[in-house]
Amino acid sequence: MDVFCDYCGAKLDVEHENCCTQCGAPFDNNASVKAYREEKKRKEEEYRRRQEMRQNEYNASQQPSQSNVSNSQNASAQKIAKTITTVIIIMFFAPMVISIIISIFGGIFSMIADNFDNADYDYIEESVSEESSATQEVQRVNFNETAQTAEYSFICDEVFRTDIMYGGADKGYMYVAFHLKVKNTTDEKQWLSNDLNCVYDGDIGCDRAWGFNEGKSFSTSVTLSAGIGSDGYVCYIVPEKAKSVVLSYGDYVRVNIDLRDLSYRTENSQTSTDNT
C-alpha cells in the first residue's frame, strides 16, 4: 500500500520516517498514513490470533495422544504382571512335569528336546541378525552437506535472515529461513513423513514462523517415486544470540548450521530452487 504526502504528493516512507522527506510535512494529520498504520496493526493482530489458534489446536491434539500413552502403559503393566505370574507357575511345576516326562519317554524325549533347542537357537540367532542389519545410525552433517539414510537423502543448502509478510520479529529475535531438499533414494515409491524441528543450545526449541513464502514451504509428509525429490523453505524464530542451530528431520538426520554470518534477504528477492 503506497502512501503519498497531502501537501506535495511525494511518496512517503512510513516505516522509517515521521515526516515527508521532500516538504517536511509531519505524518500526524495524514489520513493515508493513519489508514496504513491501522491496516498494519490489524494484520499483526490477525497474525497473532492465527498463531494462538494454531497453538491451541496443537495443544488439543496432544491430549488424546497423552491419553493413549497412559492407556498403553497400563496395558503393558498388566501384560508384564500376567507374564511374571505365568513364569512363577511354570518354575514351580516344571521340575515335576519334566521328571515325569523323562521317566516315561527316556531317550526319546532327550532327542526331541535337543532338536527343538537347536532349531529355536537358530531362529533366535537369525532374528537378532535381521534386527541388527535394520538398525540405522543417526546421520550428523553440517550446512550444505548431504545426509544419506537407507530410504532418502536430506540437505539444507540455503540459510538467510529475512522478514515475513506480517512484519519483523520481536526484539532480540530474528526470522531465519532454511531451504531444504529430501530425495527418495530407493527403487520403490516411498511415503516420507518425518517431524522437523529446530533447536539451539542443545535442547531449546525454536518456534515456526508462519507466513514466509507459504506457496513454496517444505512439506514434512510427501509421497515420492523412486529417485524423485521435494524441496521448499521453512522459517523459524531464532534468538539473535544463538550462534548455531540444529535441524532434526525424523529420527536419523541432524544438520548443524552456523548462524554467525547470515545474509539478509526479503521474500521478494528469493529465487525458486529445483527438486533434488
Structure description:
- Residues 38-72 are annotated as: Disordered.
- The chain crosses the membrane at residues 87-112.
- InterPro entries: Immunoprotect_excell_Ig-like.
- This is DUF4352 domain-containing protein.
- The structure is a single chain.
- Among the domains are: 79-134, no CATH class; 139-269, Sandwich (Immunoglobulin-like), CATH 2.60.40.
- The protein is built from two helices and twelve strands.
- It has helices at residues 31-105, 107-134, and strands at 139-142, 147-148, 152-162, 173-184, 190-193, 196-200, 204-205, 207-208, 221-224, 229-239, 244-249, 253-258.
- Strand 11 and strand 12 form a beta hairpin.
- The protein starts with 30 loop residues before the first helix and ends in an 18-residue tail after the last strand.
What is the topology?
Layout: H1 31-105, H2 107-134, E1 139-142, E2 147-148, E3 152-162, E4 173-184, E5 190-193, E6 196-200, E7 204-205, E8 207-208, E9 221-224, E10 229-239, E11 244-249, E12 253-258
Parallel strand pairs: 1-12
Antiparallel strand pairs: 2-3, 3-4, 4-10, 5-9, 6-7, 6-11, 8-10, 11-12
Précis, in short:
With 276 residues, the protein is α+β, with helices and mostly antiparallel strands. It has helices spanning 31-105, 107-134; strands at residues 139-142, 147-148, 152-162, 173-184, 190-193, 196-200, 204-205, 207-208, 221-224, 229-239, 244-249, 253-258.
